[in-house]
Specification:
Uridine Diphospho-n-acetylenolpyruvylglucosamine Reductase, domain 1; Uridine Diphospho-n-acetylenolpyruvylglucosamine Reductase, domain 2; Uridine Diphospho-n-acetylenolpyruvylglucosamine Reductase, domain 3; 27% strand; 20 strands; 24% helix; alpha+beta; binds flavin-adenine dinucleotide
Length: 339
């Protein structure tokens, strides 16, 4: 395992900001994960696991510890019956390649999550989701290294405690587990309508009545390309803010401020308000704040146009959060985690 020193984190995160990692390495097996954690412990250094860096913001002071880039490969069918196929996938596999492969196998369950950057192992961390699917829907379990007990184990989906863009991996057990593989159970049935609003609208407008996971994947990629900047050329982390979740008692007060405010009732009785709508309706869409652009095609996305530091991004972020709060009395919060 090679260990490199003073590596700029901006080269490994899609927002292209932030200072240096004191040490950086790559882990290609679960045992290498344990080895690097034990080595860090022996030197009293903090550890950070990095996937594709598409949901991480690096701070200007950098990271005074070891950053391990997840590179564990694997794609193994572990069960197969008339209705479903169960696959164990190495945490370092590229997520969109995994989706492509399962769609080509005629399976459904993750096709609407096409085009999401990053690694398979990061998908449980924020319960990745898009266009009506989230990883919690198909995930059976994760293989994980427990850095507290220095043991390997398996966490069931229930253990992961998935909620909207959240799980134990970014709340109660943040930093404790390294996911080394995920196991998904995918269906052999083709996807059935009704679909997520934006998809259903596309199908209705184009008079489409036959649905396969390949068709869903193709349309999702087409819609995403029109709404999201490509991180390879335009630094961003996708949605920079989580949608706001409010309690039922807040609904009437908000409707009084703005009767057009869109709200979607969730299964648990709370209401989701699209953060992009809130930002747009504060007049911030397209604005350049401290070198950070509120993306013209989607106000939920912040693009690093000319920011040179985390501080620039922090100032832009706080201005947006404060303006939304002052206008709508709703608190929105940052989605990407920070290193
Ligand atoms: C253009 C664009 C579009 C996006 N669209 C979506 C979308 O539609 N839906 C959505 O949910 N997200 C979306 N994202 C966010 C992001 O792609 C996902 O959150 C993705 O899962 C992050 O993967 P990553 O490998 O880049 O993780 P990283 O950014 O490297 O890491 C994210 C967090 O997960 C932790 N982590 C990573 N790997 C592991 C592991 N193996 N074990 C334990 N912890 C780990 C890291 O420590 C970090 O805290 C988008 C991002 C971009 C840039």
């Amino acid at each position: 395992m090679d260990i490199h020193t003073n590596i700029p984190l901006k080269n490994f995160t899609t927002m292209k900001l932030g200072g240096n990692a004191r040490f950086m390495t790559e882990v290609r097996t679960p045992q290498e994960v344990a080895d690097v954690y034990n080595s860090a412990k022996a030197q009293s250094l903090p550890m950070f696991i990095l996937g594709g860096g598409s949901n991480v913001i690096a701070r200007d002071e950098g990271f005074n510890g070891i950053v391990a880039r997840m590179r564990i490969e694997g794609f193994d069918i572990i069960a197969d019956d008339a209705a479903s196929t169960t696959i164990r996938i190495g945490a370092g596999e590229n997520w969109d390649s995994v989706v492509k492969r399962t769609v080509e196998m005629g399976l459904s369950g993750i096709e609407a999550m096409s085009g999401i950057p990053g690694t398979a192992g990061a998908t449980p961390v924020q319960n990745v989701g898009a266009y009506g699917q989230e990883i919690a829907d198909t995930l059976i379990s994760v293989d994980a290294y427990d850095s507290i007990t220095n043991t390997f184990g398996v966490l069931s989906a229930a253990d992961c405690n998935f909620t909207y863009r959240d799980s134990i991996f970014r709340s109660d057990a943040k930093g404790r587990y390294v996911i080394t593989a995920i196991t998904l159970k995918l269906s052999k049935n083709q996807p059935q309508p009704p679909f997520y609003e934006a998809l259903q609208k596309y199908f209705d407008e184009h008079n489409m009545h036959i649905f396969t996971s390949q068709i869903i994947r193709d349309i999702v990629i087409q819609i995403r390309n029109s709404k999201l900047p490509n991180p390879a050329t335009t630094p961003n982390t996708g949605s920079f803010f989580k949608n706001a979740i409010i309690d039922k008692w807040q609904v009437d007060g908000l409707k009084a401020i703005n009767p057009n405010i869109p709200m979607y009732e969730m299964a648990d009785g709370t209401y989701k308000i699209p953060a992009g709508w809130l930002i747009e309706n504060c007049g911030l869409k397209g604005q350049l704040l401290h070198g950070v652009r509120v993306y013209e095609n989607n106000a939920l996305v912040l693009v690093n146009e000319s920011a040179t530091s985390y501080l620039d991004l922090e100032m832009a972020r706080n201005e947006i959060i404060n303006k939304v709060r002052d206008t709508f009395r709703v608190q929105i919060e940052q989605e990407p985690l920070e290193i």
